[in-house]
């Protein structure tokens, strides 16, 4: 690897694609990135890095063999500078964060000015995504570009009900997709990431997205977001354990609260961040949800986890949860204020180490499912703008009640 990098010498742009058994989709991603570099950055020296987590389906072979031979055929000029490609297996803790660390290291060695990373299972990526994530870095002076996607109103509920309102309230920046997966960042921010001692932790396994966003904001780097349209990628395994996904995202978010408590305890109010790209409405695949089954899970949680919830939430809020469980499905509504108290009380229980972390956060799953079912019942006849307005109301509730978190944290 060192010899390969010495031959390349330096690069203006480094594009990273972490992968694991994505042979079916990664060729399209590589070709879209090639086309984006050719069309928008023909005079910049660029390197595409595929950091692979041990694929056995020929993913790395597809990367080596994927290129656009004749740029003129897609109305592009030939590049002034050629694109180098590096595909290699990385070593270390298996996970997306470990792959990113290697991409950061390559960017540092090559002296890259701008970098971007893209998921390897994207089906909706276009050449414009490269321009939208890299140009704000190269020409706008930004250090971090978060993605802004158009998503179905029932998609991304962990982001909508926990991660977005919480990170926005804590750090004061309204970054809409803090765990989006596709990001742009400056070479100097990549170097800063490498100074952080997190690579033997859960960040290296599954917490890298929220860690990158929060680290950039909390350390005063210049942050923006770019509208990329719809994000369509390989469907996740419907049999996958939802509580594991919730644990991965929420544990990383809560741990970052510990790291940056001195920052967020001083933040009052929030402000929007600049947005690049032309926002437009796109057709979205429907998301089918069984709310009756979700509400059964919520009620089972009251029966099975009542003692834990009582300890974390206190008698008053737990009484409200019990009252919700007695409602018929047609009348079920999880108030926004009560949900904010639940999230804040769980963050405080994490801070005070009330029980083992995994047990703590997985006990939150039925509460989250109940809140999600409530939103789906409330928003089923709403248009996208109305549904977004409900998420904005939830964010305001998080902001209005931040003093409760601050007071009890101290």
Structure description:
This protein is an alpha/beta fold. It folds into two domains: 2-276, Spore Coat Polysaccharide Biosynthesis Protein SpsA, Chain A; 291-409, no CATH class. Helices cover 53% and strands 12% of the residues. The protein contains 16 helices and ten strands. It has helices spanning 2-8, 23-40, 59-65, 96-110, 127-138, 157-171, 187-194, 202-218, 242-259, 261-264, 291-325, 336-351, 357-362, 365-379, 384-400, 402-409; strands spanning 13-19, 46-52, 83-89, 114-117, 144-150, 173-174, 183-186, 223-230, 271-272, 275-276. An eight-stranded mixed beta sheet has the order 3-2-1-4-7-5-8-10, sandwiched between helices. Strands 6-9 form a two-stranded parallel sheet. β1 (13-19), α2 (23-40) and β2 form a beta-alpha-beta unit. It is globular. The termini are far apart. The model is unreliable at 70-79 (pLDDT under 50).
